[in-house]
Amino acid sequence: MNADESNYLSEHSVRSWLLTTDHKRIGILYLLSIVVYFAIAATAAALMRIQLLSPHSDLVLPETYNKLFTLHGVLMVWFFLIPSIPAVLGNFVIPMMIGARDVAFPKLNLISWYLFNIGGLCALYAVIWGGVDTGWTFYTPYSTTYANGHVVTMIMGVFIAGFGSILTGLNFIVTIHKMRAPGMTWFRLPLFIWSLYSTSLILVLATPVLAITLLAITVERLWGVGIFDPNLGGDPVLFQHMFWFYSHPAVYIMILPGMGVVSELITCFSRKRIFGYHFVAFSSLAIAVIGFLVWGHHMFVSSQSVYAGMVFSILSFIVAVPSAIKVFNWTATLYKGSISYDTPMLYAFGFIGLFTIGGLTGLFLAAIAVDVHLHDTYFVIAHFHYIMVGGMVLSFMGGLHYWWPKITGRMYPEVMGRIAALTTFVGFNLTFFPQFLLGYLGQPRRYHAYPPEFQIFHIFSTAGASILGVGYLMPLFYFLWSLKYGQRAPANPWQATGLEWQTPSPPPRENFGKIPIITEAPYDYHPEVEQAKPELQHV
Question: Does residue 524 have a pLDDT over 80?
Answer without folding.
Answer: no
